[in-house]
């Protein structure tokens, strides 16, 4: 069972109002993870010119791509 599947089953067993609030926060969290994954995927496909347009170096991009997916995107290489 995945963590998300387990979380959904916990939410489903909660009283309606509390479960709805918790369900929204899980959905918001999941959307954030997907957004970070998509941003990092796009960053990985950029060439030197695209990185330069964003004021990033290849080292900045590598730093971001090696961070855990649950870690926020910093695009500065520091944080």
Domain module count: 1
Uncertain stretches: none
End-to-end C-alpha gap: 32 Å
Shape: elongated
The helical percent reads: 55-70%
- SS summary, helix count: 4
- Helix-and-strand structural type: mainly alpha
Give the biggest beta sheet.
none
Share of residues in strands:
under 5%
The overall strand count is: 0
The pLDDT mean sits at 76
Topology order in helix (H) and strand (E) letters: HHHH
Q: Write down the Rg.
A: 17 Å
What does this structure look like?
By secondary structure, the protein is an all-alpha fold. It has one domain. It contains four helices and no strands. Helix 1 packs antiparallel against helix 2 and helix 2 runs antiparallel to helix 4.
SSE arrangement:
Layout: H1 3-12, H2 16-44, H3 48-53, H4 58-65
Helix pairs in contact: 1-2, 2-4
Write a brief structural summary.
The protein has helices spanning 3-12, 16-44, 48-53, 58-65. The protein has 79 residues and is an all-alpha fold.
